[in-house]
Amino acid sequence: MASAAARPDEIPEGAACFITTTHRPITEVTTGLNPEGALVDEPSDRAYVTCSRSHELTVIELATLSVVGHIPVGQEPTDTAIDNLTRRLFACDLRSSSVTVIDLDSEQPEASLDVPPYPSSLTIDEQRRLLYCGCAAGASVAVIDVDELRVLATVPAELGAGGTAVDEQRQIGYCANFLTGSMTVFDCRTRQPVDRIELGRAPCSAMVNEANDSLYVVNSGADALLRIDLATRRPVAEIPVGRGPVGIHSSASGDRIYTGNRGEGTVSVVGAADDREWARFPVGEAPAGLALDERRNRLLVSNAGSGTVTVLEDLLTGPAQRLEDPPHPLVGRPLPPFELLDLKTGRLRHSREWSERKYILNFFASW
Amino acid sequence: MIESLRRRAGRFGLDIVLVNIWEGGVHLDEAAAYRERWGIEGTLLIDDTAAYARALGVRGVPTNVLIDDAGRVQAVGVSSADELLRAAERLEPRLRETGRDTEHPADAAPTPRDFVI
User: Smallest Cβ distance to A364: which of B61, B71, B80?
Assistant: First the structure.
Protein backbone atom coordinates (compact mmCIF):
# COMPACT_ATOMS: atom_id res chain seq x y z
CA MET A 1 0.00 0.00 0.00
CA ALA A 2 1.48 3.34 -1.00
CA SER A 3 1.08 6.57 0.85
CA ALA A 4 -0.64 9.48 -0.79
CA ALA A 5 2.21 11.87 -0.15
CA ALA A 6 5.80 11.51 0.95
CA ARG A 7 6.46 15.18 1.64
CA PRO A 8 3.99 16.09 4.33
CA ASP A 9 5.28 19.54 5.04
CA GLU A 10 4.45 20.70 1.55
CA ILE A 11 0.84 21.62 0.99
CA PRO A 12 -0.42 19.57 -1.95
CA GLU A 13 -1.52 21.37 -5.06
CA GLY A 14 -5.06 21.35 -6.33
CA ALA A 15 -8.46 21.79 -4.80
CA ALA A 16 -7.29 20.90 -1.31
CA CYS A 17 -4.53 23.52 -1.45
CA PHE A 18 -5.87 26.32 0.66
CA ILE A 19 -5.31 27.83 4.02
CA THR A 20 -8.47 28.73 5.83
CA THR A 21 -8.85 30.45 9.15
CA THR A 22 -9.97 27.17 10.71
CA HIS A 23 -7.57 24.47 9.60
CA ARG A 24 -4.77 23.51 7.26
CA PRO A 25 -5.11 20.28 5.27
CA ILE A 26 -1.78 18.44 5.14
CA THR A 27 -2.45 15.28 3.15
CA GLU A 28 -4.47 12.08 2.85
CA VAL A 29 -2.66 8.81 3.40
CA THR A 30 -4.05 5.72 1.69
CA THR A 31 -4.46 2.83 4.16
CA GLY A 32 -5.89 -0.68 4.15
CA LEU A 33 -9.61 -1.20 3.61
CA ASN A 34 -12.20 0.64 5.70
CA PRO A 35 -10.02 2.34 8.33
CA GLU A 36 -12.09 2.71 11.49
CA GLY A 37 -9.71 3.86 14.18
CA ALA A 38 -6.35 5.54 14.62
CA LEU A 39 -3.87 5.83 17.47
CA VAL A 40 -0.54 7.65 17.80
CA ASP A 41 2.41 6.08 19.60
CA GLU A 42 4.67 8.97 20.59
CA PRO A 43 7.87 7.02 21.39
CA SER A 44 8.01 5.43 17.95
CA ASP A 45 6.50 8.50 16.22
CA ARG A 46 4.10 6.22 14.39
CA ALA A 47 0.37 5.91 13.94
CA TYR A 48 -1.55 2.63 13.88
CA VAL A 49 -4.75 2.52 11.88
CA THR A 50 -7.31 -0.27 12.30
CA CYS A 51 -8.41 -1.36 8.83
CA SER A 52 -11.55 -3.38 9.42
CA ARG A 53 -11.97 -4.98 6.02
CA SER A 54 -8.33 -5.87 5.41
CA HIS A 55 -7.99 -7.24 8.97
CA GLU A 56 -4.79 -5.38 9.70
CA LEU A 57 -3.24 -2.32 11.22
CA THR A 58 -1.67 0.05 8.73
CA VAL A 59 1.49 1.59 10.21
CA ILE A 60 2.20 5.22 9.31
CA GLU A 61 5.51 6.95 9.98
CA LEU A 62 4.46 10.38 11.19
CA ALA A 63 7.62 12.25 10.17
CA THR A 64 7.10 11.38 6.52
CA LEU A 65 3.42 10.44 6.57
CA SER A 66 4.26 7.32 4.63
CA VAL A 67 2.96 3.81 5.15
CA VAL A 68 5.79 1.68 6.55
CA GLY A 69 4.05 -1.54 7.50
CA HIS A 70 0.99 -3.70 7.94
CA ILE A 71 0.32 -5.82 11.02
CA PRO A 72 -2.15 -8.70 10.64
CA VAL A 73 -4.75 -8.96 13.41
CA GLY A 74 -8.11 -10.75 13.83
CA GLN A 75 -11.26 -10.27 11.78
CA GLU A 76 -12.52 -6.70 11.51
CA PRO A 77 -10.41 -4.68 13.94
CA THR A 78 -12.01 -1.43 15.10
CA ASP A 79 -10.16 0.07 18.04
CA THR A 80 -6.70 0.07 19.60
CA ALA A 81 -5.02 0.99 22.86
CA ILE A 82 -1.38 1.13 23.97
CA ASP A 83 0.18 0.16 27.27
CA ASN A 84 3.31 2.27 27.44
CA LEU A 85 4.89 0.30 30.26
CA THR A 86 5.01 -3.04 28.45
CA ARG A 87 5.08 -1.44 24.99
CA ARG A 88 2.12 -3.51 23.95
CA LEU A 89 -0.57 -2.50 21.52
CA PHE A 90 -4.03 -4.05 21.79
CA ALA A 91 -6.52 -4.29 18.92
CA CYS A 92 -10.09 -5.52 19.32
CA ASP A 93 -11.35 -7.71 16.50
CA LEU A 94 -15.10 -7.47 16.08
CA ARG A 95 -15.80 -10.62 14.13
CA SER A 96 -13.30 -12.96 15.70
CA SER A 97 -14.32 -11.89 19.20
CA SER A 98 -10.74 -11.43 20.23
CA VAL A 99 -8.18 -8.89 21.32
CA THR A 100 -4.90 -9.16 19.44
CA VAL A 101 -1.81 -8.24 21.47
CA ILE A 102 1.09 -6.77 19.52
CA ASP A 103 4.65 -6.25 20.67
CA LEU A 104 5.31 -2.66 19.61
CA ASP A 105 9.07 -3.01 19.31
CA SER A 106 8.88 -5.85 16.80
CA GLU A 107 5.42 -4.87 15.52
CA GLN A 108 4.50 -8.55 15.58
CA PRO A 109 1.40 -10.19 17.11
CA GLU A 110 2.27 -11.71 20.48
CA ALA A 111 -1.02 -13.21 21.64
CA SER A 112 -4.75 -13.33 21.02
CA LEU A 113 -7.27 -13.23 23.86
CA ASP A 114 -10.84 -14.48 23.58
CA VAL A 115 -13.43 -11.97 24.77
CA PRO A 116 -17.25 -11.86 24.65
CA PRO A 117 -18.81 -11.37 21.19
CA TYR A 118 -18.32 -8.26 19.10
CA PRO A 119 -15.56 -6.36 20.93
CA SER A 120 -15.59 -2.83 19.61
CA SER A 121 -13.77 -0.48 21.97
CA LEU A 122 -10.68 -0.44 24.21
CA THR A 123 -9.53 1.77 27.09
CA ILE A 124 -6.40 1.45 29.20
CA ASP A 125 -6.60 1.92 32.98
CA GLU A 126 -2.95 2.66 33.72
CA GLN A 127 -3.34 2.83 37.49
CA ARG A 128 -4.76 -0.64 37.78
CA ARG A 129 -2.85 -2.12 34.80
CA LEU A 130 -6.13 -3.10 33.17
CA LEU A 131 -7.67 -2.89 29.75
CA TYR A 132 -11.44 -2.47 29.36
CA CYS A 133 -13.05 -3.87 26.23
CA GLY A 134 -16.66 -3.07 25.37
CA CYS A 135 -18.28 -6.14 23.79
CA ALA A 136 -21.43 -5.23 21.89
CA ALA A 137 -23.11 -8.59 21.41
CA GLY A 138 -21.81 -9.88 24.73
CA ALA A 139 -23.47 -6.89 26.44
CA SER A 140 -20.49 -6.63 28.72
CA VAL A 141 -17.10 -5.10 29.36
CA ALA A 142 -14.18 -7.52 29.43
CA VAL A 143 -11.53 -6.63 32.02
CA ILE A 144 -8.06 -7.69 30.87
CA ASP A 145 -4.83 -7.76 32.86
CA VAL A 146 -2.30 -6.07 30.56
CA ASP A 147 0.69 -7.69 32.26
CA GLU A 148 -0.55 -11.27 32.51
CA LEU A 149 -2.61 -11.05 29.30
CA ARG A 150 -5.70 -12.72 30.61
CA VAL A 151 -9.35 -11.81 31.03
CA LEU A 152 -9.99 -11.27 34.72
CA ALA A 153 -13.71 -10.55 34.69
CA THR A 154 -16.63 -9.30 32.65
CA VAL A 155 -18.74 -6.39 33.83
CA PRO A 156 -22.40 -6.71 32.83
CA ALA A 157 -23.46 -3.90 30.51
CA GLU A 158 -26.16 -3.78 27.82
CA LEU A 159 -26.56 -4.64 24.17
CA GLY A 160 -24.34 -2.63 21.92
CA ALA A 161 -21.74 -2.18 24.68
CA GLY A 162 -19.14 -0.12 22.90
CA GLY A 163 -17.38 3.11 23.76
CA THR A 164 -15.47 2.75 27.01
CA ALA A 165 -13.76 5.37 29.17
CA VAL A 166 -12.25 5.51 32.63
CA ASP A 167 -12.19 8.21 35.30
CA GLU A 168 -8.95 7.13 36.96
CA GLN A 169 -9.27 9.70 39.72
CA ARG A 170 -12.57 8.27 40.97
CA GLN A 171 -11.86 4.71 39.81
CA ILE A 172 -15.05 4.65 37.79
CA GLY A 173 -15.45 3.11 34.35
CA TYR A 174 -18.01 3.92 31.67
CA CYS A 175 -19.44 1.96 28.78
CA ALA A 176 -21.83 3.44 26.21
CA ASN A 177 -24.49 0.97 25.05
CA PHE A 178 -25.22 1.71 21.41
CA LEU A 179 -28.43 -0.29 21.08
CA THR A 180 -30.11 0.69 24.33
CA GLY A 181 -29.11 4.36 24.35
CA SER A 182 -27.57 4.18 27.79
CA MET A 183 -24.31 4.29 29.70
CA THR A 184 -23.27 1.61 32.16
CA VAL A 185 -21.22 3.02 35.03
CA PHE A 186 -19.01 0.56 36.89
CA ASP A 187 -16.64 0.51 39.83
CA CYS A 188 -13.14 -0.33 38.61
CA ARG A 189 -12.26 -2.02 41.91
CA THR A 190 -15.29 -4.27 42.34
CA ARG A 191 -15.93 -4.57 38.57
CA GLN A 192 -19.64 -4.22 39.18
CA PRO A 193 -22.15 -1.72 37.74
CA VAL A 194 -22.98 1.12 40.11
CA ASP A 195 -25.13 3.40 37.97
CA ARG A 196 -26.91 3.76 34.63
CA ILE A 197 -27.23 6.98 32.62
CA GLU A 198 -29.83 7.55 29.90
CA LEU A 199 -28.02 8.98 26.90
CA GLY A 200 -30.24 9.19 23.84
CA ARG A 201 -29.88 7.70 20.41
CA ALA A 202 -27.07 5.34 19.44
CA PRO A 203 -24.21 6.50 21.67
CA CYS A 204 -20.83 5.42 20.29
CA SER A 205 -17.41 6.52 21.48
CA ALA A 206 -16.70 8.00 24.88
CA MET A 207 -13.74 9.77 26.48
CA VAL A 208 -12.78 11.46 29.72
CA ASN A 209 -11.46 15.01 29.50
CA GLU A 210 -9.57 15.78 32.69
CA ALA A 211 -9.27 19.45 31.74
CA ASN A 212 -12.92 20.09 32.59
CA ASP A 213 -13.63 16.96 34.66
CA SER A 214 -16.10 15.74 32.05
CA LEU A 215 -17.04 12.63 30.17
CA TYR A 216 -17.93 13.10 26.52
CA VAL A 217 -20.07 10.72 24.46
CA VAL A 218 -21.09 11.04 20.83
CA ASN A 219 -24.76 10.32 20.19
CA SER A 220 -24.59 9.20 16.58
CA GLY A 221 -28.36 9.00 16.11
CA ALA A 222 -28.96 12.49 17.49
CA ASP A 223 -26.08 14.30 15.73
CA ALA A 224 -24.89 15.52 19.11
CA LEU A 225 -22.01 15.43 21.58
CA LEU A 226 -23.07 14.87 25.15
CA ARG A 227 -21.05 16.23 28.08
CA ILE A 228 -21.46 14.50 31.42
CA ASP A 229 -20.17 15.97 34.67
CA LEU A 230 -17.90 13.38 36.25
CA ALA A 231 -18.64 14.49 39.81
CA THR A 232 -22.40 14.09 39.51
CA ARG A 233 -22.42 11.59 36.63
CA ARG A 234 -25.26 13.46 34.96
CA PRO A 235 -25.49 15.06 31.47
CA VAL A 236 -24.91 18.80 31.58
CA ALA A 237 -24.77 19.74 27.90
CA GLU A 238 -25.92 18.36 24.56
CA ILE A 239 -24.01 20.06 21.77
CA PRO A 240 -25.19 19.76 18.14
CA VAL A 241 -22.39 18.62 15.80
CA GLY A 242 -22.23 17.19 12.27
CA ARG A 243 -24.27 14.24 11.05
CA GLY A 244 -23.64 10.81 12.52
CA PRO A 245 -20.78 11.48 14.96
CA VAL A 246 -19.00 8.23 15.86
CA GLY A 247 -15.38 9.11 16.72
CA ILE A 248 -14.09 11.35 19.50
CA HIS A 249 -10.77 12.81 20.69
CA SER A 250 -9.59 15.79 22.68
CA SER A 251 -6.86 18.30 21.92
CA ALA A 252 -3.59 18.00 23.86
CA SER A 253 -4.66 20.64 26.38
CA GLY A 254 -8.24 19.42 26.57
CA ASP A 255 -9.59 22.81 25.56
CA ARG A 256 -11.53 21.31 22.64
CA ILE A 257 -13.11 18.04 21.58
CA TYR A 258 -13.15 16.65 18.05
CA THR A 259 -15.90 14.40 16.69
CA GLY A 260 -15.61 12.32 13.50
CA ASN A 261 -18.94 12.71 11.72
CA ARG A 262 -19.58 9.55 9.72
CA GLY A 263 -22.77 10.82 8.12
CA GLU A 264 -21.27 13.77 6.31
CA GLY A 265 -17.48 13.53 6.00
CA THR A 266 -16.52 16.18 8.52
CA VAL A 267 -14.89 16.70 11.90
CA SER A 268 -16.59 19.01 14.40
CA VAL A 269 -14.55 21.04 16.87
CA VAL A 270 -16.31 21.73 20.19
CA GLY A 271 -15.05 24.08 22.89
CA ALA A 272 -14.66 22.47 26.31
CA ALA A 273 -15.32 25.73 28.14
CA ASP A 274 -18.28 27.00 26.15
CA ASP A 275 -20.01 23.78 24.97
CA ARG A 276 -20.24 25.22 21.44
CA GLU A 277 -19.30 23.86 18.07
CA TRP A 278 -16.46 26.10 16.92
CA ALA A 279 -16.10 24.85 13.38
CA ARG A 280 -16.46 21.87 11.09
CA PHE A 281 -13.55 20.58 8.96
CA PRO A 282 -14.18 18.65 5.73
CA VAL A 283 -12.27 15.34 5.72
CA GLY A 284 -12.60 12.07 3.77
CA GLU A 285 -15.65 9.87 3.29
CA ALA A 286 -17.39 8.37 6.33
CA PRO A 287 -14.83 9.38 8.97
CA ALA A 288 -14.70 7.60 12.30
CA GLY A 289 -11.70 7.37 14.63
CA LEU A 290 -9.40 10.27 15.46
CA ALA A 291 -5.86 10.56 16.79
CA LEU A 292 -3.57 13.43 17.67
CA ASP A 293 0.08 13.83 16.68
CA GLU A 294 0.98 16.11 19.57
CA ARG A 295 4.55 16.64 18.39
CA ARG A 296 3.33 18.37 15.24
CA ASN A 297 -0.12 19.44 16.46
CA ARG A 298 -1.81 17.47 13.73
CA LEU A 299 -5.12 15.64 13.77
CA LEU A 300 -5.41 12.26 12.07
CA VAL A 301 -8.85 11.13 10.89
CA SER A 302 -9.66 7.61 9.70
CA ASN A 303 -12.04 7.67 6.76
CA ALA A 304 -13.76 4.29 6.49
CA GLY A 305 -15.42 5.19 3.20
CA SER A 306 -12.49 6.55 1.25
CA GLY A 307 -9.88 4.21 2.74
CA THR A 308 -7.62 7.04 3.84
CA VAL A 309 -6.38 8.95 6.84
CA THR A 310 -6.80 12.70 6.60
CA VAL A 311 -4.01 14.67 8.26
CA LEU A 312 -4.71 18.30 9.12
CA GLU A 313 -3.68 21.08 11.41
CA ASP A 314 -6.26 22.81 13.58
CA LEU A 315 -5.70 26.58 13.44
CA LEU A 316 -8.64 27.61 15.59
CA THR A 317 -8.21 29.91 18.56
CA GLY A 318 -11.92 30.00 19.34
CA PRO A 319 -15.28 29.77 17.61
CA ALA A 320 -15.08 30.45 13.89
CA GLN A 321 -17.58 32.63 12.13
CA ARG A 322 -20.34 30.25 11.12
CA LEU A 323 -21.66 30.58 7.61
CA GLU A 324 -25.05 29.16 6.79
CA ASP A 325 -24.73 25.82 5.04
CA PRO A 326 -25.52 26.23 1.34
CA PRO A 327 -28.13 23.84 -0.08
CA HIS A 328 -26.74 20.71 -1.66
CA PRO A 329 -25.95 21.47 -5.32
CA LEU A 330 -28.22 18.66 -6.50
CA VAL A 331 -31.36 20.00 -4.83
CA GLY A 332 -33.86 21.18 -7.43
CA ARG A 333 -31.97 19.50 -10.26
CA PRO A 334 -32.69 16.24 -12.10
CA LEU A 335 -31.19 13.18 -10.48
CA PRO A 336 -28.23 11.93 -12.55
CA PRO A 337 -29.16 8.55 -14.06
CA PHE A 338 -27.87 5.33 -12.51
CA GLU A 339 -27.43 1.74 -13.55
CA LEU A 340 -26.69 -0.50 -10.58
CA LEU A 341 -26.74 -4.21 -9.76
CA ASP A 342 -29.82 -5.53 -7.96
CA LEU A 343 -28.67 -7.82 -5.14
CA LYS A 344 -31.77 -10.00 -5.26
CA THR A 345 -32.13 -10.53 -9.02
CA GLY A 346 -28.54 -10.04 -10.15
CA ARG A 347 -29.82 -7.74 -12.89
CA LEU A 348 -28.83 -4.17 -13.65
CA ARG A 349 -31.50 -1.68 -12.66
CA HIS A 350 -31.77 1.71 -14.35
CA SER A 351 -33.10 4.90 -12.82
CA ARG A 352 -35.66 5.19 -15.60
CA GLU A 353 -37.58 2.34 -13.89
CA TRP A 354 -38.49 4.88 -11.22
CA SER A 355 -39.44 7.67 -13.63
CA GLU A 356 -42.59 9.58 -12.70
CA ARG A 357 -42.43 8.10 -9.19
CA LYS A 358 -41.44 9.58 -5.89
CA TYR A 359 -38.63 7.65 -4.29
CA ILE A 360 -35.76 7.77 -1.82
CA LEU A 361 -32.25 6.46 -2.42
CA ASN A 362 -30.85 5.31 0.92
CA PHE A 363 -27.06 5.02 0.70
CA PHE A 364 -25.79 2.77 3.46
CA ALA A 365 -22.91 0.56 4.56
CA SER A 366 -23.38 -2.52 6.69
CA TRP A 367 -20.83 -1.42 9.30
CA MET B 1 -36.78 1.62 10.64
CA ILE B 2 -35.97 1.95 6.94
CA GLU B 3 -37.86 -1.23 6.02
CA SER B 4 -40.95 -0.33 8.04
CA LEU B 5 -40.97 3.13 6.47
CA ARG B 6 -40.62 1.55 3.03
CA ARG B 7 -43.63 -0.68 3.64
CA ARG B 8 -45.71 2.21 4.91
CA ALA B 9 -44.62 4.59 2.14
CA GLY B 10 -45.23 1.95 -0.50
CA ARG B 11 -48.99 2.23 0.11
CA PHE B 12 -48.80 5.71 -1.40
CA GLY B 13 -46.42 4.83 -4.22
CA LEU B 14 -43.33 6.22 -2.51
CA ASP B 15 -40.49 3.74 -2.95
CA ILE B 16 -37.33 3.45 -0.86
CA VAL B 17 -34.35 1.93 -2.64
CA LEU B 18 -31.29 0.92 -0.64
CA VAL B 19 -27.87 1.44 -2.20
CA ASN B 20 -24.95 -0.36 -0.58
CA ILE B 21 -21.52 1.31 -0.69
CA TRP B 22 -18.04 1.12 0.89
CA GLU B 23 -17.88 -2.54 1.85
CA GLY B 24 -14.21 -3.04 1.05
CA GLY B 25 -14.71 -5.38 -1.88
CA VAL B 26 -17.15 -7.80 -0.24
CA HIS B 27 -20.39 -6.07 -1.17
CA LEU B 28 -22.48 -9.07 -2.14
CA ASP B 29 -21.79 -10.98 1.07
CA GLU B 30 -22.16 -7.99 3.35
CA ALA B 31 -25.27 -6.62 1.67
CA ALA B 32 -26.90 -10.06 1.71
CA ALA B 33 -26.14 -10.47 5.40
CA TYR B 34 -27.51 -6.99 6.11
CA ARG B 35 -30.70 -7.73 4.18
CA GLU B 36 -31.17 -10.96 6.10
CA ARG B 37 -30.42 -9.44 9.49
CA TRP B 38 -32.83 -6.52 9.15
CA GLY B 39 -35.52 -8.27 7.12
CA ILE B 40 -35.12 -5.97 4.11
CA GLU B 41 -37.60 -6.93 1.40
CA GLY B 42 -37.29 -3.89 -0.85
CA THR B 43 -34.86 -3.25 -3.68
CA LEU B 44 -31.22 -3.29 -2.63
CA LEU B 45 -28.72 -2.05 -5.22
CA ILE B 46 -24.94 -2.38 -5.15
CA ASP B 47 -22.67 0.57 -5.92
CA ASP B 48 -19.47 -1.39 -5.38
CA THR B 49 -17.03 1.35 -6.40
CA ALA B 50 -19.19 4.09 -4.84
CA ALA B 51 -18.83 5.91 -8.16
CA TYR B 52 -22.51 6.81 -8.28
CA ALA B 53 -22.48 7.91 -4.63
CA ARG B 54 -19.51 10.17 -5.33
CA ALA B 55 -21.23 11.59 -8.41
CA LEU B 56 -24.05 12.68 -6.10
CA GLY B 57 -21.66 14.12 -3.55
CA VAL B 58 -22.40 11.52 -0.89
CA ARG B 59 -19.77 12.00 1.86
CA GLY B 60 -21.05 9.70 4.56
CA VAL B 61 -23.51 7.04 5.58
CA PRO B 62 -26.38 6.90 5.93
CA THR B 63 -27.29 9.51 3.32
CA ASN B 64 -30.76 9.77 1.84
CA VAL B 65 -31.56 11.38 -1.51
CA LEU B 66 -35.24 12.23 -2.01
CA ILE B 67 -36.55 12.46 -5.56
CA ASP B 68 -39.96 13.81 -6.61
CA ASP B 69 -42.16 12.42 -9.37
CA ALA B 70 -40.63 14.86 -11.85
CA GLY B 71 -37.25 13.23 -11.26
CA ARG B 72 -35.88 16.24 -9.36
CA VAL B 73 -33.87 15.98 -6.17
CA GLN B 74 -35.77 17.42 -3.22
CA ALA B 75 -33.27 16.77 -0.43
CA VAL B 76 -29.85 15.24 0.21
CA GLY B 77 -28.53 14.14 3.59
CA VAL B 78 -31.36 13.58 6.08
CA SER B 79 -29.41 10.89 7.87
CA SER B 80 -31.18 10.60 11.22
CA ALA B 81 -34.42 8.66 11.62
CA ASP B 82 -36.45 11.71 12.64
CA GLU B 83 -35.09 13.77 9.80
CA LEU B 84 -35.86 11.04 7.30
CA LEU B 85 -39.43 10.68 8.55
CA ARG B 86 -40.03 14.40 8.28
CA ALA B 87 -38.48 14.59 4.80
CA ALA B 88 -40.49 11.59 3.61
CA GLU B 89 -43.67 13.24 4.87
CA ARG B 90 -42.83 16.40 2.96
CA LEU B 91 -42.33 14.32 -0.18
CA GLU B 92 -45.51 12.30 0.41
CA PRO B 93 -47.86 14.21 2.76
CA ARG B 94 -50.29 11.26 3.02
CA LEU B 95 -47.67 9.49 5.16
CA ARG B 96 -48.74 11.73 8.04
CA GLU B 97 -52.11 10.04 8.07
CA THR B 98 -50.68 6.66 9.05
CA GLY B 99 -49.24 5.47 12.32
CA ARG B 100 -45.85 3.91 12.55
CA ASP B 101 -45.81 0.21 11.67
CA THR B 102 -44.25 -1.62 14.60
CA GLU B 103 -44.87 -5.11 13.37
CA HIS B 104 -41.76 -5.39 11.27
CA PRO B 105 -38.81 -7.29 12.80
CA ALA B 106 -36.55 -4.32 12.12
CA ASP B 107 -38.52 -2.35 14.70
CA ALA B 108 -38.27 -4.93 17.44
CA ALA B 109 -35.87 -4.55 20.34
CA PRO B 110 -32.37 -5.72 19.35
CA THR B 111 -31.00 -9.04 20.49
CA PRO B 112 -27.52 -10.55 20.24
CA ARG B 113 -28.71 -12.29 17.06
CA ASP B 114 -28.83 -8.89 15.40
CA PHE B 115 -25.08 -9.02 15.18
CA VAL B 116 -23.33 -10.82 12.37
CA ILE B 117 -20.46 -12.69 13.90
Answer: B61
Q: Which domain holds residue A286?
A: 25-314
Express each pLDDT in B37-59 by its tens digit: 889 999 999 999 999 999 999 99
- How far apart CA A53 and CA A293 sit, in angstroms, is 25
Tell me if residue B4 falls in helix, strand or coil: helix
* Whole-Å CA distances, A277 to A215, A257, A281, B19: 17, 9, 11, 31
**Residues from chain B contacting residue A33 (CB–CB below 8 Å):** 24-25
Q: Where are the domains of chain B?
A: 2-96
Is A184 inside any structural domain?
A: yes
Q: Does a structural domain hold residue A207? A: yes
What's the whole-number average pLDDT of chain B? 85
- pTM, two decimal places: 0.91
| SS3 state of residue B67 | strand
For B9, the closest chain A residue by CA position comes to A359
- Is B2-96 a CATH 1.10.290.10 domain? no
Smallest Cβ–Cβ distance between B45 and the set A179, A341, A358 belongs to: A341
Q: Which of B67, B82, B89 to mutate to test the interface with A (most CBs of A within 10 A)?
A: B67
* A360 to B68: CB separation less than 8 angstroms, yes or no: no
Q: Give which of A292, A295, A248, A291 is closest to A270, Cα–Cα.
A: A248
Residue B98 distance to chain A (closest CA, Å): 18
d(CA A208, CA A4): 33
Is the preceding peptide bond at A203 cis, omega within 30 degrees of 0?
no
Which of B44, B63, B91 is facing A263, going by the closest CB pair?
Answer: B63
A103-124 pLDDT, tens digit per residue, is: 999 999 999 999 999 999 999 9
CATH classification of the domain holding A208: 2.130.10.10
Interface test with A, best of B45, B68, B72, B74 (most A CBs within 10 A): B45
For the stretch A228-238, pLDDT in tens is: 999 999 999 99
d(CA A304, CA A317) in angstroms, rounded, equals 29
Distance from CA of A363 to the nearest CA of B (A): 5
- In this predicted model, what pLDDT tens digit does every residue of A288-301 receive, in sequence order? 999 999 999 999 99
Answer yes or no: is A272 within a domain.
yes
| Number of domains composing chain A | 1
Flag whether A356 is in a domain. no
- Residues A113 and A144 sit within 8 Å (Cβ to Cβ): yes
User: A363 vs B88: CB contact, 8 Å cut-off?
Assistant: no
Contact A243 B44 (CB under 8 A): no
What pLDDT, in 10s, does the model give residues A41-93?
999 999 999 999 999 999 999 999 999 999 999 999 999 999 999 999 999 99
Residue of B nearest to A75 (CA): B117
